[in-house]
Amino acid sequence: MKARDLLLVVVVLVIVGFIVYESPIVQDRLRGQTTAQPAPQPAPQSSPVANGPYEIYFTQPVYPDRPETRHGGIDERFVAFVNSATRTLDIAVYDFDLENVAQAMAAAKGRGVAVRMVTDSDTLNNKDAAIQKALGIVKGAGIAIVGDERQAIMHHKFAVRDGDEIWTGSWNFTTGDTYRLNNNAVRMHSPELAHRFTEEFEQMFLQHKFGGARTRTEPMAPVMVGGARVQAMFAPENSVAQHLAERISQATTSIRFLAFSFTHDGIGKAVQARAQAGVSVQGVFERTGSETRFSEYGAMKQAGLEVYQDGNPYVMHHKVFVLDGKTTAFGSFNYSDGADHDNDENCLIVDDPAFAARFTEEFERMLAQAKAPAPVKATPEKQQPR
Question: What is the pTM of this model?
């Protein structure tokens, strides 16, 4: 074979090899996977499950909590969310001490993103070093922060990015909420939801209207987010407890709930009424406060409902209902009169079996932990979460 022909063969083989190497199947195999049968991966600290235009995240607390295990959490997912902002970023959060989130916000401001923040005045005035360090980074970047300046609390935990995507759930932007507490967070791509959350934000940031200062209104009409039907509600203006109780009253087969604080009699009675009608009810209460006379735990236990106190040595911070395996209610909204009438809160009701299945998995994990709890209930290092 002539040298020229040999050179041509070599070039062809190199090109073919490059094409094969770049194929998804070969790349998957080089990572120890195949396209048809991906190798099982260890569960990350935050467990995102993408389903079209939304992603769901849950914390995976480790006991005892140590600094060296704090990686892979929801905070890193949120930093990525902030890092992808190109135009606007609005953040309303009750508790805040994550330095990496503060730095991501400052970096967004530095690249020209319009960043705004609302928080509770108790957080602004908290002398905790981590809180003040995170707030200092935000303020140092020239980001305006508005506090509620009142006794009731600004309890939201949401963000709106670029006017078309939201982030919300039970997760505060703190180390404890990320690595000690059981929490959830969801990001949704929906200009309609983003617009409604922006309206809520601007009533607080621009108009300084918090809690009862806002006019009572009906919740926004449900919108479609992929295959999910989503209705966003805000307290106190949307009478969230009433609407949630009505949805609970429509359950026909099962009710599953995780409750950090559950003292609202109307919601409790709606659950008990469905149980009496033959609907299967299971619930997990955060242990702290569950044995007081205000909690619905005692009444449900006495009525024979299958309810438990949580097994997290720290705190179970979820606020979730799953109805009939297809409807999920989640957000910042605790099941209390204070949340319904005084605080700034949000609650999303999502009709989608795939969405509900992920929250049902989390419920089953919490239920198993409640049935076999750790022997010691730890005391949070900071203020009691809400």
Answer: 0.86
